[in-house]
Write a structure and sequence with these properties.
Length: 129
């Protein structure tokens, strides 16, 4: 797996870790241990405005810095997504439902021809009987 993992995949994984860690820090640090912050009155309105095509920038501008960084890191993940292996989250192998059955056949175990070996082993492919 390490040989086929590209640097962009590592960037995506690091960004995902950052987003998750910041989300946990917001929940535990600000929400449970701190004074709390009602993100539903600011960040949620900004986020909903993104989908409506009219984001309220002032709503997130007054949010705590940790929440702003969390949103920025999430946008970075979305930006890296198409260039990493995360793109496979959108490709569902529906064809797998109609694929033919895989037939597994065993080969007959043969005695090895090599001197100095004992016991039964599988015959190498391409080696004559």
């Amino acid at each position: 797996m390490r040989a086929t993992t590209s640097p962009v995949d590592w960037v995506a994984l690091v960004l995902l870790f950052i987003v998750i860690a910041m989300g946990v820090a917001e929940t535990v640090g600000v929400g449970l241990l701190g004074g709390g912050y009602d993100y539903r009155q600011s960040i949620a309105l900004w986020f909903r405005g993104l989908f409506a095509g009219n984001p309220d920038v002032k709503a997130i501008a007054h949010a705590p810095f940790l929440y702003q960084m969390h949103a920025t890191a999430a946008w970075a993940v979305i930006g890296v997504w198409p260039f990493s292996r995360l793109v496979h989250a959108w490709s569902a192998p529906v064809w797998y439902l109609w694929r033919p059955f895989i037939v597994y056949r065993s080969r007959v175990a043969t005695r090895p021809n090599e001197p100095g070996t004992s016991g039964r082993r599988w015959r190498r492919i391409g080696v004559p009987y």
